[in-house]
Amino acid sequence: MAFSRFTPAATGAARIGLGLAAVGRPGYINLGRARDLPAPRTPEALRARTHQLLDAAHAAGVRYLDTARSYGRAEEFLADWLTGRPEAADVVVGSKWGYTYTADWRADADVHEVKDHGAAMFDRQWAESRALLGGRLDLYQIHSATQDSGVLADPAVLDRLARLADTGVDVGLSTSGPRQAETIRAALEVERGGRPLFRTVQATYNVLEQSAAPALAEAHAAGRTVIVKEALANGRLAGPEAPGELREVADATGTGPDAVALAAVLAQPWTGIVLSGAATEGQLADNLAAARLRLDAAHLEAFTRLAEPSDAYWRARSALPWT
């Protein structure tokens, strides 16, 4: 099933995807991991946790699963789960290329991943993703494309992506950093064979980092599917760390601040899919409550005032430890 044939019909829990960044490797930049993950965090333990989450997500109606080459062994864990599960024939799988995982299964590594958006990296990582996920791979995205990396102006890479699109795999990109809007707008201009190359745009957006919203609205208006990542700001919008405005609405609606934060993203008219980065089944259930939560205009207006300057947000994110 191509990603582009899935999203127009997505409703309810199907508008929430499950991202595997938090469970495919022992270290990640998310608050509260010490209480979320098993000890020790062996590959076997995280494989089991990933499979538990995938089972729960599918049973709840989640149909988009998002992974990447740099998420440790997440592609492998997902491929294992897909094998022998005919009931999972209806899920749509997206992965990403452009970062290599380098932490050697350590949470305390000095360097966890290395970025390279060159054509040789694409060739290697596409072969690796394809070897694991085979024909189940519906969407392949540039991982954290930026203007500085030059990937959107590299004809060798763009030609490879166009050939991939010709085989039926949808092509997209994710963005990161304070200049996301510039990258998104540049991507909207990229064409191959007289057609837009990128079918999807995945970006960081949450009530603290709202700077990409106008560009995401433009992407939606141009027919691209918008996927939102880091809607909980790496844990800053969940649990006791959440701002009081979110906790007040959560108390009034009988949900958690994480559901409120996700519902605020789902309320944006340009949002196609918002990713849950849950590491436990309880977190997943709490996140999925967002699909049933309707925020009023006053709540959404109040949340716009939580936005931080983009540069400040990304400085704070870069200071979060890998744990």
Explain how this protein is built:
The protein is α/β, with parallel strands linked by helices. The chain has one domain (3-319): TIM Barrel. The chain contains 13 helices and twelve strands. Strands 1-2-3-6-7-10-11-12 form an eight-stranded parallel β-barrel, surrounded by six helices. The protein has a two-stranded antiparallel sheet with strand order 4-5. Helix 8 links the parallel strand 10 and strand 11 (225-229). The protein is globular and about 50 Å long. The two termini are 36 Å apart.
Outline of this structure?
The chain has 323 residues and is of the alpha/beta class. The protein contains 13 helices and 12 strands. The two termini are 36 Å apart.
Order of helices and strands: HEHHEHEEEHEHEHEEEHEHHEHHH
Overall pLDDT, averaged?
A: 96
Number of helices: 13
Report the CATH architecture: Alpha-Beta Barrel
Roughly how much helix do the residues carry, as a percent range? 25-40%
The low-pLDDT segments are: none
> What Rg, in angstroms, do the CA atoms define?
18 Å
- Based on CA inertia axes, which overall geometry fits? globular
Number of domains: 1
| Proportion of strand residues | 15-25%
Would you report the number of β strands?
A: 12
User: Going across the major beta sheet, what is the strand order?
Assistant: 1-2-3-6-7-10-11-12
CATH topology-level name: TIM Barrel
Separation, N- and C-terminal Cα atoms: 36 Å
The secondary-structure class comes to alpha/beta
CATH class: Alpha Beta
CATH superfamily: NADP-dependent oxidoreductase domain
**Main sheet characteristics:** 8 strands, parallel, barrel
